[in-house]
Amino acid sequence: MPLPEAAVFERLREFAAVDAAEDHATRTITEVFTGNPLGEVPVGTTADVEAAFGRARAAQRLWAARPVEERAAVLERYRQLVVDHREHLMDVIQAETGKARWAAQEEIMGLMFAARYFSRVAPQLLAPHRVPGAFPVLNRAAVRTQPKGVVGVIAPWNYPMLLSIGDSIPALLAGNAVIVKPDSQTPYSSLANAELLRRAGLPQDLLQVVPGPGTVVGTAIVDSCDYLMFTGSSETGSALAQQCGKRLIGFSAELGGKNPMIVTRGANLNKAAKAAVRACFSNAGQLCISIERLYVERSVAEEFTDKFVAAVQAAKLGAAYDHSADIGSLISEAQLETVTKHVADATSKGARVLAGGNARPDIGPLFFEPTVLADVTDTMACGRNETFGPLVSIYPVADAEEAVRLANDTEYGLNASVWAASTAEGERIAERLHAGTVCIDEGYAPAWGTTGAPMGGMGISGVGRRHGPDGLLKFTEPQTVVVTRLMNLDAPWGVPQDKWQRLLMGIARSLRFLPGR
After folding, report:
1. Is 288 a catalytic residue?
2. Catalytic pick from 31, 96, 106, 254?
3. DSSP strand pairing (391-397 vs 415-419)
């Protein structure tokens, strides 16, 4: 399957929210598989961000005034366009990230699930709902929602469509405008979806993509937005949270992970070993919720390790725009350098390489073999730090008790995987894990794909949740409206204040007998 023609990327450039009349600097975007140029994208400025916010605020007021059912219809049309253009979208993802095609398809499915779920639940979640008033009969209370205004989305490079547009979908349905800053390495993924959203009927200025560096475009977005959604490292997330705190605006983030998988005696080792390859090496391990630590009960550790290593060694690395490769490329020299250093550091301190361990320039400039290490300790860089690459460490443990203790021995708490002798045992282990999502008998995809449930991290792995009702309502401001009827709380004519206050207290005490109180 060939790379999309250069004209495709030239067309997508037109959807960047930059001043076409200005003489902008440009950035060359390269095809990761080869290092060859795909096209030139303008580099946004602070002025571009300010202008985008001005247009967005005007568009947002009109959008918020439209019935939520109309907004949902636009996003449902977008979902269908994603389905119709999925092959083109996967080409763009692969060109910019170098991931295998099945991993690119994960993004397409994620966009489909998000658009369908939020389009269906938004009318109900955003509808006013009654709550008991302070005093029955006298008070009628309702809770309504108002959009935040203009939401900033700062997206990463590893899942550049899903984590930019997927987070924009609920913000748009809630009645907001969105300004997206894609990672500088992957702007075309966001721009391709901006085109489809426009075709679906989304007003032109409602979602704008401003490419550019975080120090310029990202900072300007944080300085102007009414709510910030961020996906990236825990260190950057902490800095952004402080900036949002100073402005007293809302902030949500999915951050880093050092995710564990637990395999106990009695688990189906064949299934666990095969699935672990996907769980550890999806997108060459460049995934916040992928597995980097394997804890295996000692009685089955040798058997599991043999099966897992064999499955890893059988996985095919490749640079192909089809499904012939199991594992793709790293995205940058920086990621390749991190993985190389982590492996070298670990082996110099006594770790053993069970599989992989080498860069593969014969396949492409940024390929690295899926690597399995044993005898890893906390003195090694990969012991406690997130590698974010195709590197996993395997640890035999005495029993499930030790596995849970070691799995929780981290500042992170994003995702975990459990393989046990029974579903009941897996659930008992899961409820003891300090992780925002836990998959039993799988790695990460079912939890991610369950868009009706919240997804996010504990500890330094995140703040807030995407997906589920929270994933929509976080982009709104709740407003309580209470109507007082018949009489207010002033003492009636002729009733002394002391008697009136005693009467009010008696009424307040009696409310505990009413349903819902």
Report:
1. yes
2. 254
3. unpaired
Contact in structure between 256 and 461 (CB atoms under 8 Å): yes
Mean pLDDT of 23-39: 93
Catalytic residue, from 225, 244, 280, 288: name it.
Answer: 288
d(CA 302, CA 300): 6
For the chain, give every domain's residue range.
6-255+468-476, 259-456
State yes or no: is 303 an active-site residue.
Answer: no
Instruction: Tell whether the model's pLDDT for residue 92 goes beyond 90.
Output: yes
The 10s digit of each residue's pLDDT in 316-354 is 999 999 999 999 999 999 999 999 999 999 999 999 999
Q: Name which of 15-24, 200-209, 454-463, 467-476 the model is least confident about.
A: 15-24
Strand partners, 263: 296, 419
The answer to whether 160 and 190 have CB atoms below 8 angstroms apart is: yes
- Kindly report the CATH class assigned to 259-456: alpha beta
Longest dimension (CA), the chain: 95
> What's the number of CA atoms in the CB half-sphere (13 Å) around residue 121?
19
CATH annotation of 6-255+468-476: 3.40.605.10
Q: Three-class SS string for 441-495?
A: CCCCHHHHHCCCCCECCCHHHEECCECHHHHHHCCEEEEEEEEECCCCCCCCCCC
